[in-house]
Write a structure and sequence with these properties.
Helices cover about 20% and strands about 40% of the residues. It contains five helices and 17 strands. It has helices at about 35-45, 45-55, 90-105, 180-200, 235-250, and strands spanning about 5-15, 15-25, 65-70, 75-80, 85-90, 110-115, 120-125, 130-135, 140-150, 155-160, 165-170, 205-210, 220-225, 260, 270-275, 280-285, 290-300. α1 crosses α2. The two termini are about 25 Å apart. The structure holds pyrrole-2-carboxylate. Pyrrole-2-carboxylate binds next to α3 and α5.
Length: about 300
């Protein structure tokens, strides 16, 4: 029998969106700044990404989080996020999932947790009730009311904002934000992303549609299309941060006021912000649940050992 390489993982979901935390057996990326380690992951070890989150062990929906030594020594640990097509600077649902997974493993206790990420360090608090609250990286709106032309649809105004990832945010659309419409929403957002890229913003890889929520006390419902065409089951931590940046820029939400963001599957994050110069610091709160603890086995004789690439 050939020796099987082993990767120890903990799976969680945050508001329906899965995170696969890699505890052991992932690639050795050294001890440099996390932004440099991501490049190394991508250039030299990308097959680990597809082996961990891709089929046949995972699916397009999974976000991976590689647990690493922090570069910033004030942090307890570092996380590098990845998905079915590449790498993420930050991931809000992934951070919540990873902290809940580490608490399950006895590696994190309720209280303050500082996490190094490629987009900057994050200060989080794990509550005794299991809720995770974190201050995200400084977020800001880059463009307001950019007109996109969608063939067959017409002109669609959008904002472009950074919340740890780049988002194109669309409020004025004819789409109904219901789970049964996921195929149509995905198609619409794919066209939006193409139009944004054609307008000179190829870095904008997430598209976020907003509409009203039917739930009392909830501020808004969203649909978020991720770069690999999976939609976010959670309200999207970085997407909610981008939304707060737009609300702050329009003076539609006061600093400290609560914004409750609902996802397309009905899960919610609570959010607020404080101003920091011409940016904002979003605070996001959500919960996650552990779904599996297991060991991925990599059989060198398996033709799909590194995933379906
Ligand atoms: O929660 O930030 C987030 C996120 C990004 C992509 C999927 N989820």
């Amino acid at each position: 029998m050939p020796a099987l390489q082993q990767i120890r993982i903990l799976d969680t979901h945050t508001g329906g969106e899965p995170t696969r935390l890699v505890l052991e057996g992932g690639p050795d990326l050294g001890r440099g700044p996390l932004a440099e380690r991501v490049k190394l992951f991508q250039e030299k070890h990308d097959r680990f990404r597809s082996a961990i989150v891709g089929e046949p062990r995972g699916s397009d929906v999974f976000v991976g989080a590689l647990l690493v030594e922090p570069h910033d020594k004030t942090c307890h640990f570092g996380l590098i996020f990845f998905n079915n097509v590449g790498y993420l600077g930050m991931c809000g649902h992934g951070l919540i999932g990873a902290i809940v997974a580490l608490a399950h493993a006895g590696m994190v206790k309720p209280g303050l947790v500082r996490v190094d990420t490629p987009a900057g360090y994050i200060v989080a608090v794990l509550g005794t009730n299991g809720e995770v609250t974190f201050d995200n990286v400084p977020s800001y709106r880059k463009h307001h009311d950019l007109e996109l032309y969608l063939p067959g649809i017409g002109n669609v105004p959008c904002d472009i904002a950074w919340g740890g990832n780049w988002f194109c945010l669309v409020e004025q659309h004819e789409q109904k934000l219901e789970l049964v419409n996921v195929a149509q929403l995905t198609d619409y957002c794919t066209r939006v992303r193409q139009a944004v890229s054609d307008s000179g913003f190829p870095e904008v890889d997430h598209v976020e549609l907003f509409g009203p929520s039917a739930k009392p006390g909830v501020s808004s419902k969203n649909f978020v299309l991720c770069p690999g065409l999976a939609y976010d089951r959670s309200p999207c931590g970085t997407g909610t941060s981008a939304k707060l940046a737009c609300l702050a820029a329009d003076n539609k939400l006061a600093p400290g006021a609560e914004w409750v963001q609902e996802s397309i599957v009905g899960s919610t994050f609570r959010a607020k912000y404080r101003r920091q110069g011409d940016k904002i610091v979003p605070t996001i709160a959500g919960t996650a649940h552990v779904t599996a603890e297991s060991t991925l086995l990599l059989d060198p004789t398996d033709p799909f050992v590194w995933g379906i690439r």
